[in-house]
Amino acid sequence: MKEIKRIWFESKPLHPALWGMLGLSVLVALLDLVAPWFYRELVNFLTTGQASPFFARFLPTENGVLFLLWWVVIYFGIDLITITAGQAKFFVMSLTGTRAQILFSYKTLERLQQLSISFFDKTPPGWIRERVYGGIREIFGILQSLIVDVLPLVINLVVAGVVLFVFNKILASVFIAVAPMYVGLSIWRAKIMRAWQKKIRTKAEQEGKTFFENISYYQLIREFAREDFELKRLGTVQSQIMRLRLRQEMFMRWSGLARDFLQIVIYAWVYGFGGYLVLTQKLLVGDLVLFIAYLGRALGPLGRVMQIYDSIQVGLVAVGRLFMVWDKRDKVTDVPDAKSLAVREGRIEFKHVGFVYKGGRRYKGEKTIFKDFNLHIKPKEIVAVVGPSGVGKSTLVKLLLRFYDVDKGRILVDGQDIKSVTQQSLRRQVSAVMQDVITFNHTVQYNLRYGNPRATDQEVARASQVANLYNFVMSLRSKFKTRIGERGVRLSGGEKQRLGIARALLKDAPILILDEATSALDSENERMVQDAMWELIKGRTAIIIAHRLSTVKKADRILVLEGGKIIEQGTHQALMKRSGYYRRLFKMQGEMLSD
To answer: Where are the beta strands (DSSP E) in 378-429?
Structure first.
């Protein structure tokens, strides 16, 4: 019930349309209940030549042809109103279904965007996709069932049940006795079905994860010729789903037979005993037709309501799992009174920072990265960070961007604690080129302008020239209008990184981060990009993370990280005069290059 309340609350923008659908559905249901009375009157008039007192007040019973003519006109009018209201209902329903899809997709993305990178680091994309789309597909179906189907069916059921009981208590007795058994069986059936569906949804999410991984990592799979292994892995999950579905279907069919048997008992009693009453002239044929018609309008809705109850219980499993994603609470959130970050000078301070990775796809368990880490970067200072893999170089940048929050200490930008400002305002003040440059399956121009949507064509061209990307773009058939494929598949690693650099140039933020920004460039391209890059860096506070030490020689200060601490720092010339890690690494790289 709480999921249904939540669905109703979340669908507030749709309420006017839903009330309209409800009104049209009730109108159709009420008009449908009138039809059996017209059937009764026609059959009785044709067999006995008489009409009930109520109809006799409005229709000319002394003239059979005139009576029939008026009956047809009234019946035609009622049916015309019924089908018109029905078509209007389906029109509103169709448009509302589309609006619901848009609404709940928007709400889902809005909530996902509020989660920090740690959630996505720990959660496989296929799992998220399966939960999201599975829940969104079911939400409007549940709303439609409750609004369009259930209430009109309940009206049919109640009215028909009352008419049956008032019309002939003996004929109605079996229905009144068996109906509670039918309902009880259906509720028990739905409860078991929901338990089965939870198991199936869990396996379906695992299937979605496996399928999505195969699409995302197709190149790696082909490189190692693991296609058969991946098909077998997917097939194993699908076999488990099939076994669960088979057992679920067997239960559904056996319980369905039991429900249908109860309906057969009711109909057999009405046909047998009702026929006997007609033969003994205790009941008119038209009255039996009326009773059977209303029995259908009672049993049909009862069965349909129970089917809807089944489907709603199954659908609520998917919706509940979607709401679990919606309700994820993240540690990285804006404080209630968060203000916009104002960068005046570009000073950055890490004060007694402590940070621990807590699980995820990178580390099992916990891994301490920083413990009482301190760093002061002056305004417009160029700081390079070097060191072995896994010492926290990239983590330093992610903490500054608030992809993660520090566990202890503070990070300040121009004296403002980054936890006290909005995340968006913080990230707007930083241009970053990360190790893995993310691109959209769109044009080169679209990807470049993502950093600055207002950039002119001249600015886009200039940024691509500075990043040594322009000549490559101009060699493409559609120039800047060329699509680069999913995840930039049509670009080499170096081209993607140069695109990332150009995008950061267009953003033109006062703080610049380059995380292995030239790692995929060959030596010639690296030198060309570095010349322009150093011109760009002037006048900005910059953090450069690099394994290739040739990239950082011009930095104002070079930091050597190890074990989450700064073990050396200074200019390139000063560090080369020491017999420390930096000098050993620089000489090692020099020897490798000379080889």
So the answer is: 382-386, 408-413, 416-417
